What does this fold into?
Amino acid sequence: MLKMKVILHRSSGLRSLGLALVLAAFSIPLAFAQTSVIRDPGALDGGPDQGAMLRSSVQDPGQYDRSGGPVKFEFKFKAGDKSRILSHVNEDVYVNYRLNRHSVILNRISMEVTAEGEDGSGTVEGTFMTSENAVTRRGGPATFVWGEEYESKFNRSKLGVYDISDRYFMPTVRDVPVFPDREISPGESWTAKGHEAHDLRRQFALETPYKVPFEAEYTYLGTVTATSKAGADTGTDGSVDGGEVTKTLHVINVKYNMYMKTPTPSGVVAYLDYPTEMMGYSDELIYWDNETGAIDHYTENFRILMESSYGNVYEFRGTADAEVTAFERVATEEQIADVEEQIKQLGIDDITVKKTSKGLTISIENIQFGGESAVLLNSEKIKLRKIADILKGYPDNDILVSGHTAHYPGGADPQQLSEERAASVADYLVQLGVKDKFHVFTQGFGDKQPIDTNDTAEGRAKNRRVEITIMDE
It folds into this structure.
């Protein structure tokens, strides 16, 4: 019997595209395969036999404006620049050719350019967060739990080539896009080498990224005109019309097949599993903002297969998309004072406002739920409706809802209760229209972070709290 949790998540790095493979919490019987079942790397060429999931991303070449002249594409790094990338993945996971599950995965990346080189390169540092699955609850909008975080630091040339240590596992797809050092005309194609670097530490005890090389084929399709709300980072060619900003985006199609057969690692214990082959296909559309020198957003179709030495075959088919946005810094003294004044004017009790590592945090103490449950009382819904009006003033910032419980010996499991209460508050904020479910995250800390004693009723009331953070990282 094969028991496992298998997840493939396509995570985007700063001004790049990404994919990561995670096979977690599984046990496999010690049965070895005698022959390989992955035989033909050309089978993933995106041909008609692969079905609609792998159809070409370029549906109508006529939709792109190709009247413009040649363009020089380069990344533009400026020290101090910060951005947030949010990607969504919908995929089907097959284990030994049987459908294992359908996954909805969200990746959130916060990046900062910490240095710029004289040659136009940039040093980038950031945090990659993956929420492995939506939390689905009856009647709820399925907000996402704040997941595992990866730190990364790398240098990238102005043409897109990475220089990154093997101590870092993110971003996963590297050297995409890479531009030639010349002008490109609409309709023109070029190729460049890249690789995927997968994190297989948990599953196969590989201490460094598992790298699969490929050669990507690029085609500059032309331009499209995009609109966004005023106030966003839109580039210098944007024009404002009625509260909306229009900008020109350059559309680039990227396709690649990858295949690698792994030699038997030296010193491997006979009964340990390890990846023997990986192959895959990706077809992406990059929407490039040449004024800012960065990706604006992208879409992707993909299919990945991996075989292990035990003979198990894992297949991932799906689609991904990502948006790159700027966001407002909110954890300033002025912003904290402004939120405190709004809370005072609204007459909300048991509220404190403070700066935390992730942004500006509104702490709701003595929040009331049904006994030993996550059911919000009507009095708290009234309070949250007032807070929602404040949160709507920060449309470009994500929200993180954190649950905390007091310590009650013999009571309900504090960790589970804190998670459920955070989710209950997050769901209600989504229902109120503060954000959609992809921009509200939850986490629970149980009774591990008290702010007062648990020996008195007053202290326990302070510890029983939900914190709403307007994120600025």
Notes: Helices lie at 201-204, 333-346, 378-391, 414-431, 457-463.
